[in-house]
Amino acid sequence: MSLVNIATRRLLLHAKNALPAFGAGVRNASESTDLREVLARQIPEKQKEVKEFRKECGSKVIGEIQVDMLYGGMRGMKGLVTETSVLDPNEGIRFRGYSLPECQKLLPKAPGGSEPLPEGLFWLLVTGDIPTDAQVKAISQEWNERAAVPYHVVQMLNNFPDSLHPMSQFSAAISAMNSESKFAEAYAQGVNKTTYWEYTYEDSMNLIAKLPTVAAIIYRNLYKDGKVSPISMDMDWSGNFSQMLGYDNDMFTELMRLYLTIHSDHEGGNVSAHTVHLVGSALSDPYLSFAAGMNGLAGPLHGLANQEVLVWLTKLREQVGDNVSDENMREFIWSTLKSGQVVPGYGHAVLRKTDPRYECQREFALKHLPDDPMFKLVSQIYKLVPDILLEQGKAQNPWPNVDAHSGVLLQYYGMTEMNYYTVLFGVSRALGTLASLIWDRAFGLPLERPKSMSTEGLKKLVGR
């Protein structure tokens, strides 16, 4: 019996748990703790909605494309459908319609904790509904049960040289795990394309479950004794990850919960999210698609940005010290700009305000490490840099982004290995990109193939 038939039978048994219609206010999830069952109930409705919308409005024009957009990284082009999150230039990120502060307030938390559990955000990204405590606990348990990493992948990780970058190891291990792909196996057997989403879901759940173990093996091999503690079936995803990394500090675990939540998704046009979507459109399985996205995340203009912030802050401290006056700080910032460099951690391709992800990290620091010298330095920079960038006149967005703060928090709790930070980002980014990939297959989105132009062709097109 196929997975979809199993899900259908379950729906008949749980008809009383029908999802409420989408609307204003908090969207409560059904009572079922089976995420796949909830998803199976939603998909036909959403497929119908999209089909009717395309039939009615498929020929409508939603914008214009300018020559500068083609040369400027396609910024501003409306060219993708991503259901999980939307980035507003002035408001910031919304996950399925919920702002970050709303997610922090509404999503379930660990007992005694104050930060949202990433499991809850994943449920929200997949379904659009705020999950219950029981549903989040069910996801934690399911990921713990799926967390075992194939032996050949562990061997491969253990045989990598210490000189191989953590992100290269991370990407390679993810690719190698496609030996476990349910999607690839089903496709080879010729399953009906209407069931593609089911196998994408299975692979995505398995991959998300295994990523903390893979990431922990890389960290312990490179920087510690190579030993990784086993998964605890009673812990949440972030708690297990922290333990496997070797951190027993409850506040570090709380930071991980926050970090893994806020880095999970940032609509579909960023390099990592778009790459997963693009490669997935070729019907590459979720392992290969996500590995491709991680290779994009490894670039210095994407996932390595928080490392660059720390390098710059370290250089600043070496030259001006901790208790620097605002005047001397301004001089250092101006010297950075006049040398042709940027102030790392400031500016964003879309945002035109302070990144809400920066703000929630700042609130965490104000609560847990208000007297940390590096945090004070970051706060002072936050006070000065926007006005300086506005005075310079080149920045459309002079405000800090998520990377301006995250490295300082990690360093405070003892994780000083900057080369590793992007791996943490990658573990988090799985939540959003794989939730989107499930819906890509549910909607039956085709192979992505935009038209490209030569400069000569563009000249002819515009009458030059």
Can you tag this structure with a few keywords?
2 domains, Citrate Synthase, domain 1, three-stranded antiparallel β-sheet, 21 helices, globular, mainly alpha, 464 residues, disordered N terminus
Q: How many angstroms does the end-to-end distance come to?
A: 61 Å
The stretches of 5 or more residues where confidence is low (pLDDT under 50) are 1-24
Q: C-alpha Rg, in Å? A: 23 Å
Largest sheet: 3 strands, antiparallel
Overall geometry comes to globular
> How much of the sequence is in beta strands?
under 5%
Main structural class:
mainly alpha
Number of domains: 2
**Alpha plus pi helix count:** 21
CATH superfamily label of the largest domain: Citrate Synthase, domain 1
Please report the first level of CATH classification, the CATH class of the largest domain: Mainly Alpha
CATH architecture of the largest domain: Orthogonal Bundle
- Write the H/E string, N to C: HHHEEEHHHHHHHHHHHHHHHHHH
- Helix percent reads 55-70%
